[in-house]
Amino acid sequence: MADEAPCPCGSGDAYGVCCAPFHRGETIAPTAEHLMRSRYAAFAVDDAEYLTATWHPSTRPRELDLDANVQWRRLDIVDTVAGGETDAAGEVEFRAYWRTLPTPGVPRDGGVLHERSRFARERGRWYYVDGDAG
Questions:
Q1: Which Gene3D superfamilies does the entry mention (predicted)?
Q2: Which DSSP state fits 7?
Q3: DSSP state of 15
Q4: What is the pTM of this model?
């Protein structure tokens, strides 16, 4: 994704000054919500390496295969609980809208992933732990 393009996380900032620095390892997410947004953007730009690196080791899958046919369209943050720069844990409730890309012979599909995610901060770094989809 081009740095000047709007960031997929919906912040209104350009990707190059929003989530790209997290994806490139230039800085770390200061809050659970920042990590949530940057992880959503990583799904949108197909960055499995960042998703794996920010997944807590206790719940991280052995392999992460992203579906190239899914296009992430919009992220809405619904609620946050704790997850600030000095907290050890936090929760972020979100809705992530998706659709499938056109494929010959396959009807287009779409939907919303609604989840309350749990995050933990260890040694100053936030990690996604798990979530409840609803």
A1: 3.10.450.50
A2: P
A3: G
A4: 0.95
